[in-house]
Specification:
Blueprint lengths: L1 E4 L8 E4 L9 E10 L2 H7 L15 E6 L2 E5 L2 E2 L13 E2 L11 E5 L3 E3 L6 H5 L2 H14 L7 E4 L5 H12 L3 E6 L2 H10 L3 E4 L5 H9 L2 E6 L6 H6 L1 E9 L12 H7 L2 E4 L5 H14 L5 E6 L3 H10 L5 E5 L2
Parallel strand pairs: 10-11, 10-13, 11-12, 13-14, 14-15, 16-17
Antiparallel strand pairs: 1-2, 3-4, 3-8, 3-17, 4-5, 5-9, 6-7
Helix pairs in contact: 3-4, 3-9
Length: 321
């Protein structure tokens, strides 16, 4: 079969022949029609994950045909029995197991779910990892509710955009930050109440004036900007963290946390229950993932380059013939 293969650290994937995966106990073969990129794939390419091995087929998201049915893949396996956190053996497709940037992938039968019928293969492939992460941090962890004021930082990437889409359908009042004014305007066109450019001076003060304060804040960056989020959180607010692209948080004030009775909640990926609930929510509200661009599998190296440049608004999808 044809696949995109990472052969060494810091090198773009190569389109080449790869053996079709063998099926072990309880495994099924999914003939893939589409897959989508996540920042995880870039970090694996850069060698920033423990347990790396080369060559490997990256990719966590995929949709295709399994045993005659149109399906979408749950990227995570081995969550365990406790809904509060994943077990030690939890794995995400694409490392250490070969992933979805190929004509076929072998997964456990429990990871295969019916594709939402209102979605194309490309749209369905854009959903799993980012949609699951967004659903868990927003609803399972932060318990976002109708009428609450929500801030989503760094809007433009997959998880942040799904948080916006899910929250709008759940009846929240949504605000965003982005480093790109054009992306803010696109999110406002989707129904968000407002947004600010985090590269501007006193962006947190502008948000405070705009919204008054936030009941829920979803952040995927951390870094120096995180302490400002504490200032614009309402008393009793929940702050969900699903990423740390901005690095460690300096000048963290515990006083702001305990005096406002804030909850800081970590989230990564999600359980099978979260995934099933996310699909139900998508089906109920007929939510369509935002696809930034579609590349042929053979052109996957260019898809990786687009993601590295941070130009995308929504998900970058690979079409698999």
């Amino acid at each position: 079969m044809k696949a995109l293969v990472l052969t060494e650290k810091n090198s773009l994937p190569q389109f080449m022949e790869r053996e079709e995966p063998a099926l072990e106990h309880e495994m099924v073969l999914v003939k893939l029609k589409a897959a989508s990129l996540n920042h995880r794939d870039i970090w694996i390419m850069r060698g920033q994950y423990a347990g790396l091995r080369y060559p490997i087929v990256p990719g966590s998201d995929g949709a295709g045909i399994c045993e005659g049915r149109e399906v979408v893949i749950q990227p995570g396996s081995g969550w365990g029995q406790d809904e509060r956190f994943q077990a030690g053996g939890y794995q995400i497709l694409g490392l250490p197991q070969d992933g979805t940037f190929a004509e076929a992938v072998a997964v456990n039968r429990s990871q295969v779910y019916p594709k939402p019928p209102h979605l194309s293969m490309a749209e369905a492939a854009a959903l799993p990892l980012a949609g699951l992460t967004a659903y868990r941090v927003l609803f399972s962890r932060c318990k976002a509710q109708l009428g609450e004021k929500l801030l989503v930082t760094g809007t433009g990437g997959g998880v942040a955009l799904f948080c916006v889409q899910f929250a709008l359908h759940a009846g929240l009042e949504v605000y965003v930050t982005s480093g790109d004014d054009a992306k803010i305007e696109k999110v406002k066109a989707m129904g968000a109440h407002g947004g600010v450019n985090y590269k501007s001076d006193s962006w947190e003060a502008a948000l405070k004036q705009m919204a008054g304060g936030f009941d829920v804040i979803i952040d995927g960056a951390g870094g120096a900007a995180f302490s400002n989020l504490l200032k614009i959180a309402n008393p009793g607010a929940r702050i969900g963290i699903y990423g740390g692209t901005g690095g460690a948080v300096p000048n963290f004030s515990p006083q702001a946390v305990f005096w406002k009775q804030l909850s800081i909640l970590g989230a990564t990926m999600g359980s099978d229950k979260d995934f099933a609930s996310m699909l139900d929510f998508v089906n109920q509200h007929k939510i369509v993932p935002i696809v930034d661009s579609v590349f042929e599998l053979a052109d996957g190296a260019n898809a990786f380059e687009r993601m590295q440049k941070g130009l995308q608004f929504g998900k970058i999808v690979l079409r698999i013939a």
